[in-house]
Amino acid sequence: MTQEQWGQVQQTLLQTVGRNNFKNWIEPLQFDNLSDGVATFHVPTSFLGNYVSQNFGDVIRYQMSATGADVRRVRFEVADGPAKPSPKPAAERAAPATNGQAGPVVHSPARTAPRDDLLPAAPLDPRFTFDSFVVGKPNELAHAAARRVAEGGAVTFNPLFLYGGVGLGKTHLMHAIAHELSSRRPDLNVVYLSAEQFMYRFVQALRDRKMMDFKELFRSVDVLMVDDVQFIAGKESTQEEFFHTFNALVDQNRQIIISADRAPGEIKDLEDRIKSRLQCGLVVDLHPTDYELRLGILQSKVEIQRAQYPDLVLADGVLEFLAHRISTNVRVLEGALTRLFAFASLVGREITHELTQDCLADVLRASERKITVEEIQRKVSEHYNIRLSDMIGPKRLRNFARPRQVAMYLCKQLTSRSLPEIGRHFGGRDHTTIMHGVRRIEELRAQDGQIAEDLELLRRTLEA
Ligand SMILES: Nc1ncnc2c1ncn2[C@@H]1O[C@H](COP(=O)(O)OP(=O)(O)OP(=O)(O)O)[C@@H](O)[C@H]1O
């Protein structure tokens, strides 16, 4: 790879990691050479090298490979022997402490430099942008609110409170806001940190008798984002300090964005005055994903995998299968896809249904839906307006037989029950009867629009 080509990679990295991250971490890298799949860079300090390696190593390798170069590893060497103590790059002054606690992200390091020991920085995840966030019904409101805040205009709702279950994209949205704000409004001092980091900094400031600095620092930010605020529940003095910080910022009309795993009112051991403060702005939740959103996310993430494994063939229907079967959370979905591609590349096979089931057996088992046969039978009989006993019973009237077959089909699709087990739930029918029913519905689904529509509606109701 030539210096010129590295220059082009840098342009792409600028887009991917955002201007601040780029200036602080990528720009100081001096590309030296690429040999035997190892790209070597010179860095001003070993600290910067380690930091970039941990946080941007993958994205650099990925973007270099995207130009067609064979880059399997990136290596950082200190340019002139041991690290020079000064001058440090701006971002390094705001770098993570060595205590293993990742610190908050500071997007205007220069403004916070004098108090760097209290506010060390960690990077935003460069992949968590609005571009890579797939929007669907369950998250559209949260996404719209996040977009609005990211415009950096006048503060209209304060705080923005995002909540939702594990792995549904809260952190992704918060990072996306920070990326967007730092590129639209580089003048703003945007601070992102987890509630745990807030507590850690607070305790550290108390211990080092630097509370004045701490207060001044947090009150000087323009946009404060605190992730997983439920963490401070039950921690009295941290709550107290958080409350004061919060009020001071709101009084100055500074934007606050908070995330949690549940609504403010439902966070146990959180003081009422904080709960009510948190409810003052806009409270939006990220709903559990639905099938369409999961499929959309898989389709977007598969592109990333394809770039890494361009030769792999993905059979039709595999993504749909995964979107159906893994309904826990997006992190699990993403992990499954990564694992599937890595496995397929290792064994050099096409990604088929069979390979997917082999490779992801444990994930599929763990995320088996909790939909029961009884539930399906009940919903289907309600849908077709027949009695449950008629659906399960022996009557062969078409009015009962068709819904019965629909229910059998859904049991096969949405539960992990075997055909004989399903048969037992349908008045002790033989497994061949169930198989026949399932096949019949499969055929009808392709020919009869009404049946296809019924199935879709029932599936949605059952998965909701
Ligand atoms: N709508 C989406 N589009 C694309 N990726 C998504 C979406 N929702 C979640 N993800 C991805 O799923 C993973 C988990 O998301 P994230 O870390 O934001 O979840 P979280 O809600 O903060 O979870 P936790 O409660 O565990 O902190 C991330 O890799 C994220 O990029």
Automatic annotation (TrEMBL):
Residues 1-91 are annotated as: Domain I, interacts with DnaA modulators. Residues 79-117 are annotated as: Disordered. Keywords: ATP-binding, Cytoplasm, DNA replication, DNA-binding, Lipid-binding, Nucleotide-binding. PROSITE patterns: DNAA. ATP binds at G167, G169, K170, T171. The keyword Disulfide bond does not apply. Pfam families: Bac_DnaA, Bac_DnaA_C, DnaA_N. Residues 345-464 are annotated as: Domain IV, binds dsDNA. It comes from the Bacteria. GO terms for molecular function: ATP binding; DNA replication origin binding; lipid binding. Residues 372-441 form the Chromosomal replication initiator DnaA C-terminal domain. CDD domains: AAA, Bac_DnaA_C. Residues 156-286 form the AAA+ ATPase domain. InterPro entries: AAA+_ATPase (IPR003593), Chromosome_initiator_DnaA (IPR001957), Chromosome_initiator_DnaA-like (IPR020591), Chromosome_initiator_DnaA_CS (IPR018312), DnaA_C (IPR013159), DnaA_dom (IPR013317), DnaA_N_dom (IPR024633), DnaA_N_sf (IPR038454). Its main location: cytoplasm. One of its GO terms (cellular component) is cytoplasm. Belongs to the DnaA family. Oligomerizes as a right-handed, spiral filament on DNA at oriC. Domain I is involved in oligomerization and binding regulators, domain II is flexibile and of varying length in different bacteria, domain III forms the AAA+ region, while domain IV binds dsDNA. HAMAP family: DnaA_bact. Plays an essential role in the initiation and regulation of chromosomal replication. ATP-DnaA binds to the origin of replication (oriC) to initiate formation of the DNA replication initiation complex once per cell cycle. Binds the DnaA box (a 9 base pair repeat at the origin) and separates the double-stranded (ds)DNA. Forms a right-handed helical filament on oriC DNA; dsDNA binds to the exterior of the filament while single-stranded (ss)DNA is stabiized in the filament's interior. This is Chromosomal replication initiator protein DnaA.
